[in-house]
Amino acid sequence: MHTTVVRVQNVFGFFTSVAFAIAALIAVSVVFAPQSPSASMELRNIQVVKGRPHYYSTKREEYANIRFDLDTDLSTLFNWNTKQVFLYIKAIYPSHLPSEPPTEAILWDAIIPATSAPWHHNTYIHPSTKAPKKVAKSKPQPPPSYRATAPGDAPGVLHLRNQKPKYQISDPTGKIAERGNATLELGWNIQPWVGALVWANYVDLGRWSGVKGGRSETFEFPELKGAVKKEELGTMKGGEGNRGKPA
Amino acid sequence: MAEELLEKARDVFEGQIDFEGQRLAEYLTQGILTLVGAVAFLYGYFTQDIYMTLWIGLAGTALTFVAVVPPWPFFNKHPLQWLPPQNGYSGINIEVDRKKTS
C-alpha cells in the first residue's frame, strides 16, 4: 500500500473477491424463492401434409401443424435474479423402436423477459386478448405493442387461444401421420442474471414445486391430407422474426 | 528547473504514504468493500431489485478508490523518524595510502 499504483491494485483485487462472493450469494438466494408454476394445455387441431424441407429439396416429408390452447401462470418463476424464461412446447411420441427413447420435437417457443430486463426485439409479443377489430386493408396497421404478457398480467401469465405453432414438425423417418400416443408438454428454462440455468420443470426441489398440469391429453397424429387450406397450415413467427431487420 | 518539476510530478504520481497510513489504507479497503457488498446484497434482496445491488456495489467501490488511492493527509500523520545523519566512522582512523580518511 506504499504507492498509488499498489493501492489501486489492492482495492481492485479485493473488489473482485467481493463481487464474486456477492454473485455467488445471489445465485444461491434463488433456492429460497418459492416456485409454484401451473399450466394447462389443450390440443386444438392437427393437420399432417406432405412438404419439403426447403424449396430446392427433392425429399418429400410429412409435416404436422399443431394448434393449441395454453394457459399458464409462471409468474412465480420471476424472482429478483430472473432475467428471462425460455418457454417451449414439445410434442412427444414413441419412436419406432421401443428400445429407443421417445421422440421430442419443439413446435412453439417464446422468450419471456422479466420486468427488469431491457426490451429486446427477440422477446415474445403476447397476442391481443381483445377481439380483433376489423381494419380496412388500405389503412396502415397499428404497431404491435411489444409486451410479453397481456396488459395487466404479471410476467409469465399467458393465455393463448388456437395458437398457431412456430414450427411444423416432422420425424427423422419423414413419416409422422398416424403415429399414436403423443402428448404436448410444456417446458422452460430459467435464465438468471447470475447463476445456473435451471431446467427443473416437473420435479419438486425444496421450495420449488414442479409444474401443475403442463401436459396435454394423449392424441394421435391424423392421416395424411391431400389438400388443406393454406390458412390452416400457418405458422407464427415470434419477435425474433425481426432479427437483422431495422426496427 | 525541469528536474525539480519532474521530481514533484513523480512524488505526486507515486503518492507515498507512511507505514501507519498503509495499515489504515489496507483496513479501509477491506472494511468499506465488505460493508458495501453486504449492504448491496441485503438491499437488493429485500427490495427484490438486482440493479440496486449492482449500482450500490459499484458506487461503494468507486468510493473506496477515492478514499484509499490518493495520498490523503491522514495517511501521512506518522512520518518515519529517521536518525539524524551521523558520520559513522568519526571515531576510527583509517589510513589509506598514508593519508587519513574521515
TrEMBL record, chain A:
First-listed, main subcellular location of the protein, grouped into a coarse class: endoplasmic reticulum
BP-aspect Gene Ontology terms: protein targeting to ER; signal peptide processing
Membrane topology: Single-pass type II membrane protein
GO cellular component: signal peptidase complex
Subcellular location: Endoplasmic reticulum membrane
Transmembrane segments: 12-34
One Pfam family per UniProt: SPC22
PANTHER family: MICROSOMAL SIGNAL PEPTIDASE 23 KD SUBUNIT SPC22/23, SIGNAL PEPTIDASE COMPLEX SUBUNIT 3
Its biological purpose: Essential component of the signal peptidase complex (SPC) which catalyzes the cleavage of N-terminal signal sequences from nascent proteins as they are translocated into the lumen of the endoplasmic reticulum. Essential for the SPC catalytic activity, possibly by stabilizing and positioning the active center of the complex close to the lumenal surface. Essential for viability.
Name of the protein this chain belongs to: Signal peptidase subunit 3
Organism whose genome encodes this protein: Aulographum hederae CBS 113979
UniProtKB/TrEMBL annotation, chain B:
One of the GO biological process terms: protein targeting to ER
Major subcellular site: endoplasmic reticulum
Pfam families in UniProt: SPC12
Protein's cellular compartments: Endoplasmic reticulum membrane
GO cellular-component term (any): signal peptidase complex
Chain ranges passing through the membrane: 27-46, 53-75
Keyword match Transmembrane: yes
Membrane-related topology note: Multi-pass membrane protein
Alphabetized UniProt keyword annotations: Endoplasmic reticulum, Membrane, Transmembrane, Transmembrane helix
InterPro entries xrefs: Spc1/SPCS1
Function, as annotated: Component of the signal peptidase complex (SPC) which catalyzes the cleavage of N-terminal signal sequences from nascent proteins as they are translocated into the lumen of the endoplasmic reticulum. Dispensable for SPC enzymatic activity.
Protein family according to the UniProt entry: Belongs to the SPCS1 family.
Listed name of the protein: Signal peptidase complex subunit 1
Native source organism of the sequence: Aulographum hederae CBS 113979
Taxonomy of the source species: Eukaryota, Fungi, Dikarya, Ascomycota, Pezizomycotina
